[in-house]
Amino acid sequence: MGILERIKEIEAEMARTQKNKATEYHLGQLKAKLAKLRTQLLEPPKGSSGAGEGFEVTKFGHGRVALIGFPSVGKSTLLTLLTGTHSEAASYEFTTLTCIPGIINYNDAKIQLLDLPGIIEGASEGKGRGRQVIAVAKSSDIVLMVLDASKSEGHRQILTKELEAVGLRLNKRPPQIYFKKKKTGGISFNSTCALTHIDEKLCYQILHEYKIHNAEVLFREDATVDDLIDVIEGNRKYMKCVYVYNKIDVIGIDDVDRLARQPNSVVISCNLKLNLDRLLARMWEEMGLVRVYSKPQGQQPDFTDPFVLSTDRGGCTVEDFCNHIHRSIIKDLKYVLVWGTSARHYPQHCGLSHNLHDEDVVQIVKKKEKEEGGRGRFKSHTTGPARISDREKKAPLKT
Ligand SMILES: Nc1nc2c(ncn2[C@@H]2O[C@H](COP(=O)(O)OP(=O)(O)OP(=O)(O)O)[C@@H](O)[C@H]2O)c(=O)[nH]1
Ligand SMILES: [K+]
Ligand SMILES: [Mg+2]
């Protein structure tokens, strides 16, 4: 029997099993079996790179955003509007058949936006180009789930389920479960709080399903069986997702209002170019990018050309910033001077572990160099965090 048939069989068995205390262990075991099969399904066929023809797009810019949605919700129309790169749009389904990249210039950063074919229910099991599309989504920093505001609200759940089936977790944080495989010693099971979804026996049973007989498990929250399986599998990807309801031009104002109030949602109309600026701002927020402007001694920082750091990729400390410029900088570094919201006073002398904020200005002071005086626009006696205003960015920084 193939993997897909076995998945179907287990799903059918789960559907006909009543949920109660007596079936809890059996259902837990089925969940673990299902998760194992889905992981197997994700392994690329032997001899292939995994991406598939038309989907191998090189990463570009400071971040990558994927457009995921059912066919004809307006993904290509949106890409064309936001990036200026033309992607064919039409009223028939599956107009887009490959991955089409475009670039958004926002806040002096470059963000790669990817248009993708529409996906449908069953995509995670290989329907349509579902597997390739989801692989691209996984390679992104955030997902924009594009939905047709005039269609069923169930679409959001269907797509979320498809993405979850391949190990994507949207707008969730990893479960607070410590898990470590051991060579000997059996299973040690502990928790720091009361557990209402799982007990020692069920935990053992799931570990047994994975043929794990020696391990340390510590629950730091009231987690579920699904959470435990996620931690054991260890291959889950936790991503931010913004739900983008397009085509609000064809629905009533009450419905627009209701959709706009859903969590993590933005309502737009590509046809009327409505609310696209809000969508970009939201995308920027979720990406958590940090722009740092480098200030050479005695000169103005270049406010048009930031170094862009990311908490998810690499981190945002002074050390990360230095390494971003050049690996050799750290060995000659004495300290850095920081202006911006991360500084307690201007300029603050900071070491490698200092966390930088978006729009900070940093001057590197090398071991031999003399530091710059505290005079000028960002005075050293300035107290409290303050954003460097747009006006200050434009005005010359006296040094
Ligand atoms: N009323 C309305 N129609 C829109 C809007 N945006 C896009 N459309 C229309 O929706 C249809 C589908 O648009 P596409 O951009 O091709 O959608 P898609 O999601 O890329 O579709 P596939 O590539 O087939 O998955 C086209 O006829 C668009 O003109 C909108 O804001 N309002
Ligand atoms: K279409
Ligand atoms: Mg399209």
UniProtKB/TrEMBL annotation:
<keyword id="KW-0547">Nucleotide-binding</keyword>
<dbReference type="InterPro" id="IPR045001">
    <property type="entry name" value="DRG"/>
</dbReference>
<dbReference type="InterPro" id="IPR006074">
    <property type="entry name" value="GTP1-OBG_CS"/>
</dbReference>
<dbReference type="GO" id="GO:0005525">
    <property type="term" value="F:GTP binding"/>
</dbReference>
<dbReference type="Pfam" id="PF02824">
    <property type="entry name" value="TGS"/>
</dbReference>
<dbReference type="InterPro" id="IPR004095">
    <property type="entry name" value="TGS"/>
</dbReference>
<dbReference type="InterPro" id="IPR031662">
    <property type="entry name" value="GTP-binding_2"/>
</dbReference>
<keyword id="KW-0342">GTP-binding</keyword>
<dbReference type="Pfam" id="PF16897">
    <property type="entry name" value="MMR_HSR1_Xtn"/>
</dbReference>
<dbReference type="GO" id="GO:0019003">
    <property type="term" value="F:GDP binding"/>
</dbReference>
<dbReference type="InterPro" id="IPR006073">
    <property type="entry name" value="GTP-bd"/>
</dbReference>
<dbReference type="GO" id="GO:0003924">
    <property type="term" value="F:GTPase activity"/>
</dbReference>
<feature type="domain" description="TGS">
    <location>
        <begin position="288"/>
        <end position="366"/>
    </location>
</feature>
<feature type="region of interest" description="Disordered">
    <location>
        <begin position="367"/>
        <end position="399"/>
    </location>
</feature>
<dbReference type="InterPro" id="IPR031167">
    <property type="entry name" value="G_OBG"/>
</dbReference>
<dbReference type="InterPro" id="IPR012675">
    <property type="entry name" value="Beta-grasp_dom_sf"/>
</dbReference>
<feature type="domain" description="OBG-type G">
    <location>
        <begin position="63"/>
        <end position="288"/>
    </location>
</feature>
<protein>
    <recommendedName>
        <fullName>Developmentally-regulated G-protein 2</fullName>
    </recommendedName>
</protein>
<dbReference type="InterPro" id="IPR012676">
    <property type="entry name" value="TGS-like"/>
</dbReference>
<dbReference type="InterPro" id="IPR005225">
    <property type="entry name" value="Small_GTP-bd"/>
</dbReference>
<dbReference type="Pfam" id="PF01926">
    <property type="entry name" value="MMR_HSR1"/>
</dbReference>
<dbReference type="GO" id="GO:0005737">
    <property type="term" value="C:cytoplasm"/>
</dbReference>
<dbReference type="InterPro" id="IPR027417">
    <property type="entry name" value="P-loop_NTPase"/>
</dbReference>
<dbReference type="GO" id="GO:0002181">
    <property type="term" value="P:cytoplasmic translation"/>
</dbReference>
<feature type="compositionally biased region" description="Basic and acidic residues">
    <location>
        <begin position="388"/>
        <end position="399"/>
    </location>
</feature>
